[in-house]
What does this fold into?
Amino acid sequence: MSESRDGNDTTAEIRRIDGLLQRRQLREARTLCDSLLMRHPDSVDGWLLTARIHQLSGDYRGMLDAARRALAVEPSNNLARFTEIEARMHAGDVAGARARLTDIESAAGADSGTWRRLAEFHTHLNQHEQAATCAIRVASLKPYDAQAAYTKASALIAVGRMVEAEEILDELIARAPDDADAWYNRATLRRQEPGHNHVAPLRAALAARSPGSAPVALHYALAKELEDLGQYAESFAALAQGAGARRKVLSYRVEADEQAIASIIRTFDRAWYESPAAGFEAEGPIFVVGLPRTGTTLVERILIRHEQVASVGEVNDLALAITRTAGPTADKEELIKAAARVAPAVLGESYWSAIQGYGHSRPFVVDKTPLNFLYLGLIAKALPRARIVHLRRHPMASCYAMYKTLFRMGYPFSYDLEDLGRYYLAYARLMNYWRALLPGRFLDLDYEALVEDQEGTTRRLLEHCGLEWREACLRFHENPAPTATASAAQVRRPIYRESLDLWRNYRQELAPLARLLAHNGIAIE
It folds into this structure.
């Protein structure tokens, strides 16, 4: 009886710790977890919770140690194995994480859950061909499982197999019409045409729902298809419904981002930048930064057509390197201040060592994580030989492109026009600051210039990156390399003009955003 009671008590304690972590009450969770492990040092759940506490605290070495302790207790525990891989990625051991995935894959057998996690982790590591292989394996093991079919379709989109992906999504929606994400993914695969679209069934699916209960992705799918067909007023109405519903479930406060950007400007001042501290002399990094949907994926695809350039895609390695080298901090403000105290060479080496773990053999490697624009001061000081390309786009075109995209992760400012305008203004202030602090250090590349003068702008891009001219860079759309960004379908087409002034079809609907930007000095016309 006492053993049963003790087991029940432990289960309740684990649930309580998990609840504290969900509310980010890390100190209380740590106290309870330490107590649990004192009494039950062989508790795998206890060590995995400890790993999560370290992860949320920014202590990635602690996370890795706790994951290894869990594995020592139960080497075959799948959650512990994948937690250890995630900890390696956070700790900068990308090569070790990739090796562990290979080990798990070789012994996965017919375990569909393991193959699903493998697909997920390969995607995180920008290994989309491997992710597709694993996703196809999941679907073969569970041929009637809707989630398996969706995972397979998403993986095929990343590797450019659009026709197959659409066929799978058609079948999935026929079997599982409530899968709203499948509707949205299918809508984004191609430009919808009169007589070849899904507007009628989308309207029917939305009409079958009670007001306010439709999944967000259905609204976004309908908005996208209506826009393709030129039905702009109806498109925006659907988009506004979806964005509003998405915003309601987010706890995001744009003030927090505005304050963080202001803190970056205060902290990384001229005295900091001109202090005599050497950086890490790696020549290979090429950072492509900017707001999302400004052409960062397009520029990445142009660059990797050059035989000297590879890409790691959108990764968190720079942000993770900053957190690793700055050490655990209590909040964002403290992290910014701690990052300014890090030895630049230590940060640069930590980042570049992680990037080398992806296994690319070409001398230059693109990191196209858009929000790295936040860290341009750190990049310039820690990696003085790195090339930096900043993508710009017309302010209204940029904001509308973000607003109409349903992002799977990140960019919480994009679902409300006021949030979006305020974030854009903070971004513009920061970029103006970087230009003053780092004159000539990065290339401002306008998306519109790339569309209007592809060859001339591409020549400027290659010259800035220290690369010789290659005609192949003009044929970026022939590049078979995978991509999992929101632009996965568009970058497999030649450059097109349709999206340049698309926002002008919504002048009335976007008027509050235009007024906010113009009132704060942003040129709209």
Remarks:
- Residues 1-5 have pLDDT under 50 and may be disordered.
- The two ends are 77 Å apart (CA to CA).
- The CA atoms of residues 312 and 374 lie 19 Å apart.
- The chain is about 60% helix and 5% strand.
